Amino acid sequence: MGFDLYGLNPKLKSKEPSINWEDKPSDKEKRQYFKDREKFLKENVGHYFRNNVWWWRPLANYVIKFTGCIDESDHEYWSENGGHEVDDQTAKQIHNQLKVLIESGHTKKFEDDYEKERLRAEKHNDKVEKELKKFCKSVEKKLGKTNLAPMNFPKADKDKWDEIYNKKLWSASYPFSVENVKEFAEFCRFSGGFKIC
After folding, report:
1. pTM beyond cutoff 0.70
2. Is residue 90 pLDDT above 80, yes or no?
3. Which of 70, 88, 117, 124 keeps 20 to 30 A from 141, CA to CA?
């Protein structure tokens, strides 16, 4: 799952390439289209921005928490891809605030602190994984079967597996980087407002 953001009125330097898929284009035509599209997206940063769910959530939370540009009533829309629109003025304010946060070193410090916590969570999850494997082997040995999925465990064992699994810290899966914030800030600047899909 990902979050696709489309500029509502992006400032374009070139025309968006197109291809008619119904005409069954050749491999050469497809390669050329994707090459032209990649060039178009690099030249027109306000047209489109994408993050998978793992990258988007920390970015959206950072924007909400530190820019002061998002009304509290809109916070929930930043965590769903239902077509919420952000107007041009707000997009430009987000850009300006992110630029200040980046230039002041705030975003880099946040990234460093965030990454330390994420790595701690990752190490914790490694221990949980080892505990899960050990438990699975003990269940397989008890039942005299191998390669059992936890869903096929007896109820008491499945409940125990769930208990161990639920110790995982999901924060380990959500990265954050200054570079991603910079790319998003530039998208906001040139988007003319955007839609979160």
Report:
1. yes
2. yes
3. 124
